[in-house]
Each structure stands twice: as C-alpha cells, then as structure tokens.
Amino acid sequence: MLARAARGTGAFLLRGLNILIPVLDRIRYVQSLKEIVINVPEQSAVTLDNVTLQIDGVLYLRIMDPYKASYGVEDPEYAVTQLAQTTMRSELGKLSLDKVFRERESLNASIVDAINQAADCWGIRCLRYEIKDIHVPPRVKESMQMQVEAERRKRATVLESEGTRESAINVAEGKKQAQILASEAEKAEQINQAAGEASAVLAKAKAKAEAIRILAAALTQHNGDAAASLTVAEQYVSAFSKLAKDSNTILLPSNPGDVTSMVAQAMGVYGALTKAPVPGAQDSVSSGSSRDVQGTDGSLDEEFDRVKLS
C-alpha cells in the first residue's frame, strides 16, 4: 500500500482514484506502509567497564502516519538509523561487557522503547531491533578465553574434589556400618554362647542331680553297701594311677604294690564315714569292728606321718 502527498494543495492521496490539478498539484512524497528493514551500520561503543566494542544491528519499522513521515522529518529512515545508533551507544554504556552478552534481549527491548518514544512525532513505529554481531578487541577476546578456561578448570577441580569427598564419605560410612554389623554379630554370638553354656551347665546339674538320686535309691537296696565299696575301690585305684601324671607332688603309701591293703584301707575309710551314729548303739558295736576301724585309722595316721617326714 502506497501513500502519496500532493504538493501545492496539501492534500494527502491514498491508492485508488485521485484527481490532481495540473501545474498546481504533483506527487511529492511516496511512503510505503509495509514493514521496512534497515541495516544499522557497524559502530563503536564503550561499555560500563571501558571496553570498546564494534557492534551492528538490524532495525524493523513501519510507517504508521504517512503525513507525519512526509512532513515531520526530512528523511525518516536516516533519522531512525541515527537514533538507533545513538540509543545503542547510550544503552551499551550502562552495561558491563559480561552483561552485554547475557542481556542482549533486554538491550534490544530498551533500544526499541527509546526509538518509539522519539519517533512518535514522525509517524514511525519501531517493531523490533536485533543486534547482529558484537566484535571485541583481540586482547579482550584472549582474556575472555583465558577466563572461560580458568572457570572450566575451576569447575572441574571442584567437581573432582566433591567426587573425592563423596567417595571418602561412602567408604567411611561403609566401614562404620561394617563395624556396627560386626559388633552386633559378636554380641549375638556371645549371647548365644552364654546361653548355650548356661543350658549345658543346667543340663549337667540336672543330670548329676538325677544320678545322685538314682545312686541314693540304689544304696538303699539290698547289697547297696557292697556296690558302693566296689565303686570307691575302683576310684581309689584310678586316682592313684594318675598321681604322677597330674601333679609334681606325689603322696605314696608305704606299700604301693599291695593293692589289697590299699583297697581295704579305702573301704575302711568309706565304712567309717558312711556309718551314721545312732544313740545308744555304740555299746552294741562289736569289739572286732572297733579294732578294725582303729586299725584302719592308725594305718592312715602312719601313712600321713611318713609323707610328712619324707
């Protein structure tokens, strides 16, 4: 769509049928109402941290009022281009170099707002502005690359240290859990062992009590004393045979080869110990039995005297 401004009458012509008076009227300005693309030339700009940049861009605008665009400014495209360059230098001066690269979208929006505020009286509206290229000085570029490399090395070192720390923590936690489990297992083993030993002692005590009970019952039967005498004799002989094996101090009788006398002495001791004193019964004890007991006691005393003298 084209809009024409007629010189002379001051009329503004649109597309379609228009009548012009010869000599008095003629076409002076032709404005396109389509969106216009303008390349903004490369220019120098100084950032907030005093870094000189070479920057260019692309401007997209549209003529909203052909009359203002024709009579409000001499060359609207040139005016908008110069306004975009000055606005871009002004906005870049407010930002540091790092923010220029991070905040390109906000920088473009700020330039568009500044152009629209100034170009409203020209009948022009800026739709968008895009920064094409940003060129930094070679030394600054090298510094930026070194900074990027240092930052990457820093992140790599931090990640490696964190990995080492996590590994050490995992190893320590594993050792801790292993020690806890080992102590719990040892505790359970000791408890089970103690319970087993207690059960064994109790079983042995019960068995011994049962054996004593059976032995007591057997002694009360017929010929029980004879059986007890035989058992005592056997134990005496067995104990005498183990004296030299279990201890360095040996108690030997005067006649160790006479097994009959040893058994007789053991039976005499057992008989003396197993006879319970009964009131009034000592008078009825035969003189022969008394002589046997006295003889047995005398022989034992003689044996102990010989051991003491030896």
What would your notes on this structure say?
Residues 1-148 form the Band domain. It holds the Pfam family Band_7_C. Belongs to the band 7/mec-2 family. Residues 279-310 are annotated as: Disordered. By secondary structure, the chain is of the alpha+beta class. It folds into three domains: 1-33, no CATH class; 36-136, 2-Layer Sandwich (Tetrahydropterin Synthase, Chain A), CATH 3.30.479; 137-221. It is 61% helix and 16% strand. The chain has nine helices and six strands, in the order E-E-E-E-E-H-H-H-H-E-H-H-H-H-H. Strands 2-1-3 form a three-stranded antiparallel β-sheet. The chain has a three-stranded antiparallel β-sheet with strand order 4-5-6. The longest helix is centred in the middle third of the chain and has 82 residues, at 138-219. It is rod-shaped, with a radius of gyration of 63 Å. The relative contact order is 0.06. Mean pLDDT is 76; it is low at 6-11 and 278-297.
Describe, in short, the structure shown:
This protein has nine helices and six strands, in the order E-E-E-E-E-H-H-H-H-E-H-H-H-H-H.
